[in-house]
Amino acid sequence: MRVRLPQGVDHLLVETKGGERGEAAGLLEIAPLLAADGSRVVVVLMQDAAVDASVERRRLRHALTAGVTVLVDGFSLRQRAVRDSDVAHGVGVVDADEVAGLLLVPGVKVVWH
Hints:
Elements: E1 11-15, H1 25-36, E2 41-45, H2 58-65, E3 69-73, H3 74-79, E4 92-94, H4 96-103, E5 109-112
Parallel strand pairs: 1-2, 1-5, 2-3, 3-4
Helix pairs in contact: 1-2
């Protein structure tokens, strides 16, 4: 699902680890806590973490219901043979240039794991 990127972002959390090890869970657990304080939070799943966007997991659903914008890198999906149509409902598919644009939002705090 292609999405419109948020206009303002306070926290950008980029997760690159995940997959079978489930390491993307850390940032997906932190994101709702930040959102609860009123922050605009975006989580981007890239590289190995991209496969986590294709599975309906409790942490992913919790982040989405907390108002966190969850995105996944389309290139990372294609490298792992995951189709855009297999991405969990509510997760947006983006390209690297869109992620780069989020990095340049004035005042954004970035965590890259």
